[in-house]
Amino acid sequence: MGHSLQLTWCPSLLGYDFGFGHPMSPVRLDLTMSLVRALGLFDVPGVQVVDAHPAPDTELLTVHSQEYVDAVRRASTTGRPDLAHGLGTEDDPVFAGMHDAAARIVSGSVAGARAVWSGEVAHAVNITGGMHHAMPAAASGFCIYNDAAVAIRRLLADGAERVAYVDIDAHHGDGVERVFWDDPRVVTISIHESGRSLFPGTGHATDTGGPGAEGTAVNLALPAGTGDAGWLRAVEAVVAPVVRGFGADVVVSQHGCDAHASDPLTNLAVSIDAQRRVAEIVHELAHEVADGRWLALGGGGYALLDVVPRAWSHLIAVAAHAPIAPDAEVPAEWLADVATRWGRSAPDRMTDGADAAFREFRDGYDPADDVDRAIRATRAAVFPHLGLDPHHD
């Protein structure tokens, strides 16, 4: 194994741009990778930075219909909406070059999956990926092509027998779940804000998978306002035992950082410190159950300056086996660049000052606590299907 981490990045990935005023601005990617560079993570031994080119249709068609791929390509050229395929909506406006931009993201995730599965690298990260809402025949929720699903399909085609997909974005990972709803080889685990208060309105505890794949769709819908203690408790109570019980060959994770308290589109109250801790948990699980095979993707995250760069820099650092201390200073040159380009200050530490402490679910269930009730509902719905005891790990 020549490298420990394959990191997908090239300026062309900034071309996924829905235009001025759209929440998913490529600025967040630019800021993140400039912070990663300033932190010295590009120079960590074993880190390989790779380019990405648009994925061919043969790869896209493992998840998406030919009609849809043709529609995206046509809209990219003509600029005309195609509402039947979700193109030209407020969430997913049409832009020139959209097909190539979205297909490039897919290519980065697929290349990471192949490098991890082949043993070329231990881990791979594509922060531009994690487009988990895209459906086989329609765009949805800022997502054109579902790179996570295509990467998982590639892993299965290359010989993986069991893939664990872990999604910590504040929004339900509905597109990935839809693709693998009937596939017992893939467990999709989504820890998200309840659909009662947030798009896409799905992902209930009782949604557990199709015939023959019962228990492989795992949904934990958290109440609005859930903070670090509840969020981490939920991850510990559901993600870890499911990944262990499922016995995955490889772990694919989506690290949308929009669960943060500062995110303008969601209603959770999670800190940078808790998000860093979950990156560590997923990393540890990959080494425990999958011989280290781990593909980590980005996702949502709309606090462009204050949250996204720090959260994903921590993710990359964990994957590079070069974790950054939570109380580390943000490099002065990065702060100066932000001040020059955006006329405002950014946080000067890699922490929110939270202790990311939580009480493990096994230490006692509180029936008066909304988070505990959500955890219990999910465990009751899926654990028996996976041969797990919902009352004990």
TrEMBL record:
Metabolic or biological pathway, per its Swiss-Prot or TrEMBL entry: Ketone degradation; acetoin degradation
Gene Ontology biological process: acetoin catabolic process; epigenetic regulation of gene expression
Chain ranges of the Histone deacetylase domain: 22-317
Keyword NAD carried by entry: no
Presence of the UniProt keyword Electron transport in the record: no
UniProt KW keywords: Acetoin catabolism
CDD domains in the record: HDAC_AcuC_like (cd09994)
GO molecular function, one term: histone deacetylase activity
Family the UniProt entry places it in: Belongs to the histone deacetylase family.
PANTHER family membership: HISTONE DEACETYLASE HDAC1 (PTHR10625:SF10), HISTONE DEACETYLASE HDAC1-RELATED (PTHR10625)
Protein's recorded name: Acetoin utilization protein AcuC
Annotated organism of origin: Cellulomonas fimi
Classification of source organism: Bacteria, Bacillati, Actinomycetota, Actinomycetes, Micrococcales
